[in-house]
Design goal:
Blueprint: E1 2-5, E2 8-11, E3 16-23, H1 27-44, E4 47-55, H2 66-76, E5 82-85, H3 95-107, E6 111-114, E7 119-120, H4 124-157, E8 161-162, E9 165-166, H5 170-181, H6 186-193, H7 197-206
Parallel strand pairs: 3-4, 3-5, 5-6
Antiparallel strand pairs: 1-2, 6-7, 8-9
């Protein structure tokens, strides 16, 4: 914005902000979020240049939220400088979802303001908050992977399936290598252990032989 001050032309930077709302079908919830966001924009004298609103469950990742995908795409085009949301859980239910979205925006120079918690990622306090979120995000990912790994091991021991494929126990994997060392063909190993050729091939070509 250009203004004339004391006969001198001065360039004034106007903060371009967009609203992102993920709301339920509850009209009261929508009104509460919108009122709080609008008051904050007016208080900070920001220039509202757009809004993104979708109605769906926060349990879905951003890949299933078209408005968030559109927002991220527009951020890379630098159509705005800041995103304002009512609360962090508007960006996703998991810490990983939230921090990934924040990082994508910060990488292109777009900051986030969270009304409910007064979090501003353009400030030092906001950057510190983002840093701690990253740590908790790593912890959450590690916990998920650990639980998944434990579940897979239990299924292997019970000779059950994970997804579409049958899981092998450690003793079955060892037996495949043992029979191969004895000169058994893939098909003979299949008949001996009742294991698919694809699983045998994957085991022998991808996994290391036990020591």
């Amino acid at each position: 914005m250009v203004i004339l001050y004391n006969r001198i032309i001065v360039n004034v930077l106007v903060m371009r902000v967009v609203k992102y709302q993920r709301v339920s079908t509850n009209n009261q919830d929508v009104e509460n979020q919108t009122d709080s966001i609008d008051k904050q924009i007016q208080l900070m004298d920001w220039d509202l240049v757009g809004e993104y609103k979708e109605v769906e469950s926060g349990m879905k990742s951003k890949d299933h939220r078209p408005e968030l995908r559109r927002l991220l795409k527009d951020s890379r085009r630098r159509l705005f400088d800041r995103v304002i949301v009512y609360s962090l859980d508007r960006l996703g239910r998991s810490v990983v979802d939230v921090i990934n979205t924040i990082n994508e925006l910060e990488e292109v120079g777009v900051h986030i303001f969270v009304v409910k918690n007064s979090i501003d990622t353009s400030t030092q306090q906001g950057k510190l908050f983002t840093y701690f979120c990253s740590i908790f995000g790593e912890m959450e990912r590690d916990m998920i992977l650990s639980r998944q790994s434990n579940s897979i091991e239990r299924l292997r021991e019970k000779n059950q399936k994970w997804g579409k494929g049958k899981l092998l126990s450690q003793s079955q994997r060892d037996k495949i290598f043992e029979l191969k060392e004895k000169g058994y063909s893939y098909r003979k190993i299949k008949d001996e252990l009742n294991i698919s050729l694809g699983t045998i091939s994957y085991t022998l070509n991808t996994l290391k032989q036990p020591i």
